[in-house]
Automatic annotation (TrEMBL), chain A:
Alphabetized UniProt keyword annotations: Cell membrane, Iron, Membrane, Metal-binding, Translocase, Transmembrane, Transmembrane helix, Transport
Transmembrane segments: 44-63, 109-128, 140-160, 172-196, 208-230, 251-279, 329-350, 370-389, 409-426
Membrane topology reported for the UniProt record: Multi-pass membrane protein
GO BP: any one term: respiratory electron transport chain
A GO molecular function held by the record: oxidoreductase activity
Lineage: unclassified sequences, metagenomes, ecological metagenomes
GO cellular component, one term: plasma membrane
Domain Cytochrome b/b6 N-terminal region profile residues, every copy: 11-237
Predominant localisation class: membrane
Subcellular location as annotated: Cell membrane
Protein name: Unannotated protein
Gene3D superfamilies noted in UniProt: Cytochrome Bc1 Complex, Chain C
Pfam family of the protein (one): Cytochrom_B_N_2
Automatic annotation (TrEMBL), chain B:
Membrane topology: Multi-pass membrane protein
GO-annotated cellular components: plasma membrane
UniProt cofactor(s): [2Fe-2S] cluster
Cross-referenced Pfam families: QcrA_N, Rieske
Sequence intervals crossing the membrane: 35-56, 76-96
Protein name stated in the entry: Rieske iron-sulfur protein
Length: 528, 331
């Protein structure tokens, strides 16, 4: 035994005698993780969050969360002598006088943008591959929660510096609160400690931004990861991959080295972006005052779709009995997002209800093999993208020489028409991809080599695909639609007859598929 | 639920293919050197970071293709940090990929569901516990506990009451009174009609007493936009026309949609545009909404001049300014 081994051994012994950790460690160091690039998306989100914690803590050392009025006398000459809030002045201080402060602000903001991108793309991966199915529904719901909180956290974050742009964002948030029927103006006055903007809001959202929400994030992320650990990772279909096993690399050392290394890569890339691409130059916007505004006001991208919905809303208000209800704010600002997020959270249960499938699933779906789900996803995505584009309608209009009117009508019509089109097109696309798979398994790969047949015609040579590939393309189940009876044995209508009928219909739509190749099909081909 | 037809057979996990570094000691040495070089690059990044932090001047600007002119300290601090982090990651991953075992392993899964035995035990324990507590029989305790648990939520809610005052009539009021002078923002100078040419726009606020303080929440309701047209360009009824003065018309600058500052005036079309959601208001028709999500015109402020010839408000706004709210009477 070398000296080092002895020391390691006695430390390990010391810890284990007090915690009994050895048994657990032994089991878990060999934990198997399947490998695929799309499994890195969640990791990117996790690492961005850690980077947010680190850079955010650094910022708190100088940031002064106060709306107290101060006269600026810092290094940035153009704003010299201007009245502004202490929050804004301290953000300028971080940007111009704290060495590396601007870099940290950039890292914090870039990490926030990347955090949200990673969450959204991770969510799309989970959706389109069906990873949310039993037993992983809880993790899906936690994920939707993290997405929602991330949007709120990001919004509160870029509201903190109290510049002209972010103050405008707060103004809009206040108007949404104020529009709530019955309680709106009360909640707004409580939140802002009086009339907008008051002097209470920045200190309050500061506490929420640096303490309350990060705490909730930590708790949710912990549960999220513990569930992944306990339920084991899903895996893509392939030779040797079954519902009963998991094929991949052991946690120690390979996966640990890769994941640990990847953290540094993500951090490095964020630092690089922060060095070369400066975002949110708050010194150019000036301090917030409600009487002014900067043209081309744009929120961060993860808020853009909401802004886009608000922009395209028709000018509807109800005036009755001395009261006002602002549908132009409530529908795009609360009702639609509410429906979208509730639908998102409930989707695993809706799909399970439609398909009647109550089994566990650990092998991921190839999106084409579940056309209905894939098409629904494409539809929701199209809706969100049209809204997001409309959030930048002024910028798009000036870039492409359109009028705002044209953009607005494009969006108002597009948001109704394009999603259904996306649904139909995607569903067909999935089915033709299934057909292509079928052809590939039956007739092999086109080689591009032509041979001349004795009778003079040209034929392309097809090369059979490998057994592994053939398995991957045919391992999926062929869905079978539900057939719930509408009448009972005596021919009487059942209580839930209409519900059953509806469910049957949805289930049929969900089960549409091109028949996959069976072993018998292959044999038959071989005989020819 | 699977199809009746016999499926194609699973060929099983493909045989492992060895990497070069597993077979050839030379390749292995080479991979080792590559990893070491990557880690060394990271160290260089840290040195660049330290150098930039201490020695590069804050005022040094340099030209970089693509980036344009940028602050050198900012750039090299960032690049130093980026390299120091990135290459640690790159080294670790290269190490894992080339030198650590890459044989796939297979682990078995177990169903999430607990064993039937365990479930039965659990139900039994739960039932026993409930029986011991005799919750089923002691309905008085159960009900009173339910009541107090329900009520306890009220205390934290009540505690939030002092977050802010009740709105009262606050949203309806602005600082404009009859006779309040219009003063420029910024500058706080009273203005005469002659200060404003036809086609011009000015932002004004209500005058405050010498040494008085204007809170942002006041500006958030008081900001007013003056626009001067030729009187014949207006298409207003007599009442609205009486609220203008020699072609000068005054509107609340706070958008009736969600409260942004309606700051863009297009001289040719005589439209006011809110940059937030592009609500567009026609100045000649008392700020009627002609486009966008706003549902109400901007409130108009009646103006005239005082004995010294300065612009003043005839009377307060006759309706609340800014975004809508439940108690607003908009009829
Ligand atoms: C998911 C987590 C988080 C997100 C999405 C997020 C997002 C943001 C964003 C977008 C900004 C504006 C940055 C700018 O351009 O100036 C910001 C500012 C700030 N954040 Fe965070 N943040 C997160 C977590 C944290 C944490 C954990 C802390 C502290 C412990 C923190 C402290 C701060 C501070 C002090 C500021 C204001 C200073 C400044 O803007 O320069 N943040 N945040
Ligand atoms: S706030 Fe002016 S258009 Fe929305």
């Amino acid at each position: 035994m070398t000296a080092r081994e002895r020391i390691t051994g006695s430390v390990a012994n010391y810890v284990d005698e007090r915690t009994g950790a050895a048994a657990w460690m032994k089991k878990n160091l060999n934990k198997v993780f399947p490998d695929h690039w799309s499994f890195l998306l969640g990791e990117i989100a996790l690492y961005s969050f850690i980077i947010l914690l680190l850079s955010g803590t650094f910022l708190t050392f100088w940031f002064d969360p106060s709306q107290r009025e101060v006269i600026y006398d810092g290094d940035y000459q153009p704003l010299s002598g201007l009245k502004m809030s202490a929050a804004y002045a301290s953000t300028l201080h971080i940007s111009f006088e704290v060495r590396g402060g601007l870099l940290m602000r950039q890292i914090h903001h870039w990490a926030a943008l990347l955090f949200m991108v990673a969450i959204v793309v991770h969510l799309l991966r989970v959706y389109f591959t069906g990873a949310f199915r039993k037993p992983r529904e809880f993790n899906w719901i936690i994920g939707v929660g993290l997405l929602t909180l991330g949007i709120v956290e990001g919004f509160l974050g870029y509201s903190l510096p109290d510049d002209l742009l972010s103050g405008t964002g707060i103004r809009i948030a206040e108007a949404i609160i104020q529009a709530l029927p019955v309680v709106g103006s009360y909640i707004a006055f409580f939140a802002f400690g009086g009339a907008f903007p008051g002097e209470a809001f920045i200190p309050r959202i500061f506490t929420v931004h640096v303490l309350l929400l990060p705490g909730i994030f930590l708790a949710l992320i912990t549960v999220h990861l513990m569930l992944v650990w306990y339920q084991k990772h899903t895996q893509y279909p392939g030779p040797g991959r079954t519902e009963k096993n998991v094929v991949g690399y052991p946690l120690f050392p390979v996966y640990m080295a890769k994941a640990g290394g990847f953290f540094f890569i993500v951090f490095g890339v964020i630092a690089f972006l922060s060095a070369v691409a400066s975002i949110n130059p708050i010194w150019l916007y000036g301090p917030y005052t409600p009487g002014q505004i900067s043209a081309g006001s744009q929120p961060d991208w993860y808020m853009g779709w909401l802004d886009g919905l608000v922009r395209m809303a028709p000018p509807l208000e109800t005036h009755a009995f001395g009261h006002t209800i602002s549908w132009n704010i409530l529908i795009p600002g609360l009702i639609l997002p509410g429906i979208m997020f509730t639908g998102l959270a409930l989707y695993p249960f809706i799909e399970a209800w439609i398909s009647g499938d109550k089994r566990e699933h650990h092998i991921l779906d190839r999106p084409r093999n579940v056309p209905n789900r894939t098409a629904l996803g494409a539809m929701a995505l199209t809706f969100t993208i049209v809204a997001l584009l409309n959030g930048g309608n002024d910028i798009i209009a000036t870039t492409f020489n359109l009028t705002i009117n044209q953009m607005m009508w494009f969006s108002r019509i597009g948001i109704l028409v394009l999603p259904p089109i996306a649904f139909v097109v995607t569903k067909r696309l999935c089915l033709s991809l299934q057909r292509a798979d079928r052809d590939l398994v039956l007739h092999g790969r086109e080689t591009g080599t032509l041979v001349r047949m004795p009778r003079g015609e040209f034929v392309e040579i097809h090369e059979p695909i490998s057994a592994q590939k053939a398995w991957t393309l045919t391992q999926h189940e062929q869905p079978v639609p539900l057939e719930l009876p509408a009448t009972d044995a005596r021919g009487l209508k059942r209580p839930g007859a209409i519900k059953n009928k509806l469910r049957n219909r949805m289930s049929r739509a969900h089960a549409v598929a091109v028949p996959k190749v069976s072993a018998a099909d292959l044999k038959e081909i071989e005989h020819h | 639920m699977s199809s009746e037809l016999e499926a194609i057979k699973d060929p099983g996990v493909p045989a492992h293919v060895h990497r070069q570094a597993d077979l050839d000691p030379k390749a292995e040495k080479k991979a080792e050197r590559q990893v070491a070089i990557l880690f060394a690059l990271s160290a260089l990044g840290t040195i660049l970071f330290i150098y930039s932090y201490i020695w590069i001047s804050e005022d040094l600007f340099i030209y970089f293709p693509v980036l344009g002119t940028t602050n050198a300290k900012q750039l090299f601090l960032g690049l130093g940090l980026a390299f120091s982090l990135f290459f640690i990651g790159a080294g670790a991953i290269h190490w894992a990929k080339t030198l650590m075992p890459d044989e796939e392993v297979i682990a078995m899964r177990h169903e999430m569901r607990s064993e039937d035995e365990d479930r039965r035990e659990l139900v039994k324990t739960a039932k026993q516990g409930a029986a011991a507590a005799a919750l089923g029989r002691r309905s008085l305790i159960k009900r009173s506990l339910g009541l107090s648990l329900g009520l306890i939520g009220l205390s934290p809610l009540l505690l939030l009451r002092d977050l802010g005052p009740l709105p009262g009539k606050d949203l309806e009021k602005t600082s404009w009174k009859s006779g309040t002078r219009l003063v420029t923002d910024p500058g706080d100078r009273p203005i005469k009609p002659s200060d404003l040419e036809v086609g011009a726009v000015a932002q004004v606020l209500p005058a405050i007493a010498e040494g008085g303080h204007r809170a942002l929440s006041d500006i958030g309701k008081d900001a007013v936009l003056l626009i001067r047209l030729r009187p014949e360009e207006f298409q207003l009824d007599a009442e609205r026309l009486g609220m203008t003065y020699q072609g000068i018309i005054a509107f609340s600058k706070i958008c009736s949609h969600m409260g942004c500052a309606v700051a863009l005036y297009e001289q040719q079309t005589k439209h006011l545009l809110c940059p937030c959601h592009q609500s567009t208001f026609d100045v000649t028709r008392a700020a009627k909404v002609i486009f966008g999500p706003a549902a109400r015109p901007l409130p108009q402020l009646a103006i005239t001049v005082d004995s010294e010839g300065y612009l003043i408000a005839q009377k307060p706004f006759s309706e609340p300014v800014g975004p809508s709210y439940w108690e607003r009477n908009s009829q």
